[in-house]
Amino acid sequence: MEIYLDNAATTRCYEEVLDVVARTMREDYGNPSAMHKKGVEAEQYIKSAGEILGKLLKVSPEEIFFTSGGTEANNLALVGAAMANRRAGTKIITTQIEHAAVLMPAEYLKEMGFSVTYLPVDRQGVVSLEALKEALTPETILVSAMYVNNEVGAVQPIAQIGEILKEKAPRVLFHVDAVQAFGKYRIYPKKLGVDLLSVSAHKIHGPKGAGFLYISEKAKVKPQILGGGQQKGMRSGTDNVPGVAGLGAAAKRIYQDFEEKVARMYELKARFVQGLGTLKDVRLNGQPAEESAPHIVSASFLGVRSEVLLHALEDRGIYASAGSACASHRRKESATLKAMGLPKEQREATLRFSFSEETTAEEVDSCLDALRALLPILRRYTRQ
Predict the structure, then answer these.
(1) Where are the domains of the chain?
(2) What is the pLDDT of the chain when averaged over all its residues?
(3) Does 3-11+258-383 carry CATH code 3.90.1150.10?
(4) Which residue in 150, 140, 114, 97 sits closest to 292, CA to CA?
(5) Where would I find the H helices in 317-360?
(6) pLDDT for res 324
(7) Mean pLDDT, to the nearest integer, of 111-118?
(8) Order of strands across the sheet with 140-146?
(9) Are 223 and 80 in contact (CB under 8 A)?
(10) So what's the pLDDT on residue 332?
(11) pLDDT tens-digit profile of 168-211?
(12) Theoretical Cys-Cys bridge with 205: which of 14, 102, 301, 371, CB 3.0 to 4.6 Å?
């Protein structure tokens, strides 16, 4: 029996996603830039996906730009916005708990002469609004904050950040990495005061290698990939029709019966958290379960190194992760847990469990049973 509890890393594709991806490869395989019938048929998939996403976000389809995923979307947002607005200032503000796809572009921009301020977070992983207010200067041109932290599920005060910027710095662009939030929350960028929003398909049961960046029509962004001028010159390169079509199908499906899906994930999360509470020396990280994202639970199992427990669970067919999938293979210490002030012993004993609408109560219970059996053995082994 396989129990997959690593949905924050990636999700299994919906059947309709598989169908449309296969159809665009097998039948409607034309280049959407071509003028003939096959090209027009392919282009229709791109237009349809843009319309679906525009409707979900309540923005114009013309403000949706397809990318190869969340990483490219974040790079285009940060580097593109910084370069386009350099004359207005060179200061960028982000947080200490961002994904590497934001932190690395920020480091790159520092090398290019920009200054970057990293806002602290509290013990629950929530960014300080007071620190944001203090960090804003006339030189600030961009603020970037993730909607949901990918390691602990902490939800950031995006609406409040938007209000602060509207009041104190209306010309500053606001970028939100919504990779872990899209499909879990109803997100309306214009209402939130968000100018740039990154999303990845494979987190919402779509294909890998596809995503998009919402760019407000008011935002100035310099293209980072130059070539044939596709997507109004913002992101050149032959359109990834299978990926974009799959993204559109996944986005449409994930928001059907949306409230019921989210409520069910919160029920599973509460069941899991309650079960963890019965285990000895287990610490939950981040916000209380009902305040954080519906699909992520971060827990520290004191006395057991995370990789040891991870592989012990894997031997039983249970898949979780030791943090961000994008960094886990490097065995690099979690910047998020460190920023939250967790002691080293706790940081090194942390696993992330993440659910989807396909996760069952039986799977959650089986994982708890496995933890109940494994922890005493592994702790005894560690002490020896």
Answers:
(1) 3-11+258-383, 15-254
(2) 96
(3) yes
(4) 150
(5) 325-328, 335-339, 344-347
(6) 55
(7) 98
(8) 64-67, 211-215, 196-200, 173-177, 140-146, 91-95, 115-119
(9) yes
(10) 74
(11) 999 999 999 999 999 999 999 999 999 999 999 999 999 999 99
(12) 14
DSSP classification of residue 182: B
Q: Which of 297, 280, 313 is nearest to 379 (CA)?
A: 280
| Annotated catalytic residue within 282, 284, 326, 368 | 326
The CATH number of the structural domain formed by 15-254 is: 3.40.640.10
Helix (H) or strand (E) holding 18: helix 15-26
**Conformational region of residue 233, where left means phi above 0, alpha means psi within -120 to 50, and beta covers everything else:** left
Question: Rounded to 5 degrees, what are φ and ψ at 175?
Answer: -105, 135
Mean pLDDT (whole number) for 58-62:
98
The residue assigned the tokens 């970037």 is 144
Burial, 138: exposed, middle or buried (Cβ in 10 Å; 0-12, 13-18, 19+)?
exposed
If you write DSSP's letter for every residue of 52-107 in order, what string do you get?
HHHHHHTS-GGGEEEESSHHHHHHHHHHHHHHHTGGG--EEEEETT--HHHHHHHH
How many CB atoms neighbour CB 160 within 10 A?
14
pLDDT given at position 279? 97
Q: What is the rounded CA–CA span in Å between residue 202 and residue 211?
A: 8
CA distance 112 to 45: 38
Q: What is the pTM of this model?
A: 0.96
282 forms beta bridges with 301
Q: How far apart are CA 321 and CA 333, in angstroms?
A: 14
Query: Would the pLDDT of 98 be above 90?
Result: yes
Alpha helices by DSSP H, 208-305? 241-254, 258-276
Q: Which is it for strands 296-301 and 350-354: parallel, antiparallel or unpaired?
A: antiparallel
- Residue 79 phi, psi (nearest 5): -70, -40
Examine the pLDDT at 71 and tell me if it is beyond 90: yes
Q: Is 326 assigned a catalytic role?
A: yes
- Using CA atoms, how far residue 208 sits from 11, 45, 238, 250, 316, in Å, is 9, 17, 17, 12, 27
The confidence band for 333, taking pLDDT boundaries of 50, 70 and 90, is: confident
CA 318, 255, 246, 177 torsion-angle sign? negative
pLDDT of the residue at 325? 54
pLDDT at 384 over 50: no
Report yes or no: 114 and 256 within 8 Å, Cβ to Cβ: no
Mean pLDDT of 73-87: 98
By the 10 Å C-beta count (0-12 exposed, 13-18 middle, 19+ buried), 1 is classed as: exposed
